[in-house]
Amino acid sequence: MKGAITALVVLGVLACGSRPAPLDLNALSSSTDHSCGIKHNGAIVCWGDNEDGGLGNGSRQPSHTAQSISGALVFQIVAAGGSNSCGVAVDSTAYCWGEGAMGQVGYGVMADTATPVRLSGGLAIAAISMSSMHGCAVTTSGVGYCWGDNTTGQLGNGSNAMTGVPVRIAGGLSLASVHTGFGYSCALTRQGAAYCWGSNYAGKLGTGRAADSPVPVPVAGGLTFREISTGAGHACGVTPDDLVYCWGSGAYGALGNGGTTDSPTPAVIAGGLTFKSVSAGFGQTCAVTGGGVAYCWGKNDTGQLGDSTTTQRALPAPVKGGLHFASVSAGSGFTCGLTTAGAAYCWGYNQGGQLGDGTTAQHDVPVRVTGQ
């Protein structure tokens, strides 16, 4: 996983001769240093840092506007993580690209690849998630698999052995989704029960105990979740009644409960707000209300909360700009979101082009992503 860094650069005419235009997307996912999205025609575009090939366009150069990945596949799901990314095509086959030294690209080779390669195993994939050092997916039949680094048991197969191909998650759970964080993973069963495994630093497994676990263990509290999201040091979930609970590291106020203390069990965020979706990032969390208003809280040193300041917030603060969002995706030092009309916006850190606006200037309010 590599960082990204500064200097104002405005991209001119693209190689094809067309200027970058405001970008509309069906889906969007942000990571440590880049983002990827799916256009209305099913093509994946990516932007940001690219030292390990995470943009999937065959180069290692950063892109300050959205660029198409190599190939002509049509995708339905995209997941950016660390310096790598994956997508699931409309035929349920998964492809990954980017940093792969720990096997996290999942094609059986411990090496980077700057273009998409098919995930090993011939699996039909319904959900996928990537972190900096490992990936996980759920098949169309509800079986969970993980691959990559396994130092802290984040693959969930009961061992600590690294693997470059998908291995089945232990426990026989029937899963709806799986989510990867830094050294750990979580999943939702088809009944809405949350399980986590791997590193339990700062209580991010949500079990109420201190121990790591190489196999799935239930999140404490008996809550049912509609969705969950895993960040670097904390995780959050949305219940069927639209309440957001978070657990793990409370650094920077990322749990949204007014403090900075870690919580080893789920704690409801303060303020009485209800949300339809949530995204846990690298010290910050963002969520969207039923009315399309985005709120963020936690770390804000580079404007990643989008509230026109760089002030840390331990309580939810509305994102400025009056936009109506369908979803948000919290990265490392930056955040991106899609409006209800599909317009892509980003805000925060931008030294590697993470905001996709054609510059490397930092912004503490949303700016439009541009691309092909």
Report on this structure.
The protein is built from no helices and 30 strands. With about 375 residues, the chain is an all-beta fold.
Key features of this structure:
single chain, 372 residues, mainly beta, four-stranded antiparallel sheet, 30 strands, 0% helix, 42% strand, disordered N terminus
Outline of the structure:
The protein has 372 residues and is mainly β. The protein has no helices and 30 strands.
Poorly predicted segments: 1-17
> Regarding quaternary structure, how should these chains be classified?
single chain
Rg over alpha carbons: 19 Å
Helix and strand composition category:
mainly beta
Shape: globular
Largest sheet: 4 strands, antiparallel
SS field, number of helical segments:
0
Helix content: under 10%
Mean pLDDT: 95
Through-space gap between termini? 27 Å
Order of helices and strands: EEEEEEEEEEEEEEEEEEEEEEEEEEEEEE
The amount of beta strand, in percent, is 35-45%
Question: What strand line-up does the widest sheet have?
Answer: 2-3-4-5
How many strands in all? 30
